[in-house]
Amino acid sequence: MLKDHQVFTDARDMAAHYRQVRKNLTKNVIVPKTPEPEPEPITEVQEPTITEIIASDKGPRIIISEQHMREYEESIAGLRKAKKEGGKKSMRDIAKEVADKHGYTLDDLMIRSRRQKLSIARHEAFYRMRYELNLSYPKIGSFFGMDHTSVMHGVYKHEGKSLKKEKNDG
């Protein structure tokens, strides 16, 4: 499970984190079996209604209303949807976009090949991860299984080619 200060690198990290959070939240929660009458629509944010706290030898067991459990699940689903629609891109998303753009697979980009066309695509991925996600060179290098100096070189090379292209176009 990720710590508070760590960043999700891809959707799998986020999903694993929220599975663990759900597991921790529902560990000592008992949802009542009897259906509750439908409440009036909520106009403002309400704190979860704890209907009962039961003492046990494993610690307190908290009973939360079904409505609040449903709202919790809906909010988690909303977070997942927002991530897919336009949340911050992950390293994997950028690498996949670059690989598709250049006609490679993600695995092709990850191998340590020195073919020029493949290294140009990899350098573009380094550059985009560095400036779109504000990641450190070591973090990008660990994603690709490379040394941080290789990433620095790739970013430098891509910047040089981009500037030359802009200069010739302009």
Structure write-up:
The chain is elongated and about 70 Å long. The N and C termini lie far apart (49 Å). α3 packs antiparallel against α5 (116-132), α5 (116-132) packs across α7 and α6 (137-144) crosses α7 (148-169). It has seven helices and two strands, in the order αββαααααα. It has 170 residues and is mainly alpha-helical. It has a two-stranded antiparallel sheet with strand order 1-2. The protein has two domains: 11-86, no CATH class; 91-169, DnaA protein, C-terminal DNA-binding domain (Chromosomal Replication Initiator Protein Dnaa, Chain: A).
SS element count, helices: 7
CATH class of the largest domain: Mainly Alpha
Content-based structural category? mainly alpha
User: Roughly what is the average pLDDT, rounded to an integer?
Assistant: 78
**CATH superfamily descriptor of the largest domain:** DnaA protein, C-terminal DNA-binding domain
CATH topology of the largest domain: Chromosomal Replication Initiator Protein Dnaa, Chain: A
In percent, how much strand structure appears in the residues? 5-15%
Q: In one word, what is the shape?
A: elongated
- Proportion of helical residues: 55-70%
User: What composes the largest sheet?
Assistant: 2 strands, antiparallel
CATH architecture of the largest domain: Orthogonal Bundle
Number of strands: 2
What does the radius of gyration come to?
A: 24 Å
Q: List the strand order in the largest sheet.
A: 1-2
Question: Uncertain spans, ≥5 residues at pLDDT below 50?
Answer: none
Distance between the termini: 49 Å
Topology order in helix (H) and strand (E) letters: HEEHHHHHH
Number of spatially distinct domains? 2
